[in-house]
Write a structure and sequence with these properties.
Helices cover 36% and strands 20% of the residues. By secondary structure, the protein is α+β, with helices and mostly antiparallel strands.
Length: 248
């Protein structure tokens, strides 16, 4: 089954978007549909911090807070303080939830949300709770986004004054089991800068792909009762993207 004939291509609970620096290359026309963001919300958190701190300020050590389970390593380590820079790295590269909660607590959820809506102008992306906050989840509070918003966020990263540092962090992503699953096969011709997000039926992956001097952006969002098939579809989407970029 090819990407363009996959059963999920027009699924209402799947949104795929592939773009270059100026236009959309492919979409299944669900780019404005709101999805649970899962760990994708960690990208605008990173952006907020780089937008509001200097390199020197990011060296500051802060106390860990809101220690939770789920993805990451800090929950099992005997560490009380880490630099803001290291917390950002862990938040993105291993999707550490404790690192994320510590940064949200330190910089302020409301401040980050204001940046998302007023600076990024991504009106359908919201940070509504801390990671693994079961009480907030029970109240129906979810972090949300859309494919359109995620492409905007990725473009913002690639045009930022600190784009090299942020993209270097994303380049070191350890979670490459979805769209970016082919990263190691094409590392001589393509550079992947990505972030995944998943829990339950939610399967998400977004990223920037560089080929020579050209940048491409992709977004894969899904929330179906067939998450394993969604992951298979994300692999086919990744193959489609690579073939489109390399014209193979």
């Amino acid at each position: 089954m090819s990407f363009l004939t996959h059963e999920f291509i027009d699924h209402e609970e799947v949104s795929v978007e592939f773009a270059n620096e100026s236009s959309t290359i492919f979409t299944n026309h669900h780019h404005e549909k709101i999805f649970e963001s899962a760990s994708l919300i960690k990208l605008p958190i990173m952006l907020y911090i780089f937008d509001h701190t200097t390199q020197e300020e990011r060296q500051a050590q802060i106390k860990l807070s809101n220690i939770v389970g789920g993805s990451g390593v800090l929950q099992k380590m005997n560490i009380e303080h880490l630099s803001i820079k290291d917390l950002i790295y862990l938040m993105i590269v291993v999707s550490d939830n404790t690192a994320t909660n510590t940064l949200i607590h330190y910089f302020g959820l409301q401040h980050i949300n204001l940046f998302i809506s007023e600076t990024l102008r991504t009106e359908n992306t919201e940070l509504n709770r801390f990671m693994m906050d079961e009480h907030a989840i029970a109240e129906g509070k979810q972090n949300i986004t859309t494919a359109q918003d995620m492409i905007t966020i990725l473009r913002y990263i690639s045009q930022h004054d600190d784009k090299k540092e942020m993209m270097d962090i994303m380049y070191n992503q350890h979670l490459n089991d979805k769209v970016s699953i082919y990263k190691s096969f094409y590392e001589e011709t393509l550079s992947f800068y990505s972030k995944t997000g998943e829990y339950g039926n939610v399967v998400n992956d977004v990223g920037i792909i560089q080929h020579d001097d050209d940048l491409y952006y992709y977004c894969f969002l899904s929330n179906t009762n067939k998450p394993k098939k969604a992951i298979d579809f994300s692999h086919q989407f990744g193959s489609y993207i690579i073939q489109s970029i390399l014209k193979i």
